[in-house]
Amino acid sequence: MSLRSLGRTLQSVGHERLLPILCCEGATRKSWQSHCRTDNAISRCYATNLATNQKPDWNKAVSEAEKIVGYPTSFLSLRWLLSDEIANVALHLRKLVGSNHPLLKTAKSLLYNGRNNMQAWGLIVLLISKAAGHINVDEMEEDKAAGVLHSQRALAEVTEMIRTSHLVHKGLVNIYPGLYSETTVLNDMTFGNKIALLSGDYLLGNSCAELAGLRNQELVELMSSAIRDLTEGEFLGPRDKQNNPLPSPPGTADQL
């Protein structure tokens, strides 16, 4: 029996019938075992190469998308984050250094996030705007180089700032009696919560004012519904004492 025919036989029979077939001559059995080891090695190598080749390159995808819209969305939020109000917030954030408040991690991710996923929402808005196109618009409104309207770019900025305000608000720490025994730590966490709350409210308030300036009733209604759903999502499902989502028990997803 050749190795190829033996392989077909092993695939066609069940485990209870493998023993008589494996009790063949020693040379054939050794050759088959060597063939199996080689085949398994090739399969593992192929699977590894396939997984490596399919690994997504986020920075490359963002860069190509920015070329499509003709505008570097990495700088969409700079006009908001470099304002005088945010500069004052940054001065107060220096007092939280060393306190392990979640707001520090959020602020760091906003400025030094290597994956560039902070501008993904605004980039998606610009990509959809580019694909949808526009007709019968004033030439002053259209950005010839980017192919999108100035109002569409403003909407992308608003979308990013709404998400940023949501992330800042998520940095609030639930303080309950007995959580912090040291007064210094308690004061730092309380102060950090105040900064996170006021900063998130400032960004969200400015976003809503900018959204109203677009003078589009349907757009305001749509974005308001999105903010509502985004907020409600933080209170659905099981959560720990810090409002972090917990995985649902097995089988509960089918009951929903």
From TrEMBL:
<keyword id="KW-0808">Transferase</keyword>
<feature type="region of interest" description="Disordered">
    <location>
        <begin position="233"/>
        <end position="256"/>
    </location>
</feature>
<dbReference type="Pfam" id="PF00348">
    <property type="entry name" value="polyprenyl_synt"/>
</dbReference>
<dbReference type="GO" id="GO:1990234">
    <property type="term" value="C:transferase complex"/>
</dbReference>
<dbReference type="GO" id="GO:0008299">
    <property type="term" value="P:isoprenoid biosynthetic process"/>
</dbReference>
<dbReference type="InterPro" id="IPR008949">
    <property type="entry name" value="Isoprenoid_synthase_dom_sf"/>
</dbReference>
<dbReference type="GO" id="GO:0005739">
    <property type="term" value="C:mitochondrion"/>
</dbReference>
<dbReference type="GO" id="GO:0004659">
    <property type="term" value="F:prenyltransferase activity"/>
</dbReference>
<protein>
    <submittedName>
        <fullName>Uncharacterized protein</fullName>
    </submittedName>
</protein>
<dbReference type="GO" id="GO:0006744">
    <property type="term" value="P:ubiquinone biosynthetic process"/>
</dbReference>
<dbReference type="InterPro" id="IPR000092">
    <property type="entry name" value="Polyprenyl_synt"/>
</dbReference>
<comment type="similarity">
    <text>Belongs to the FPP/GGPP synthase family.</text>
</comment>
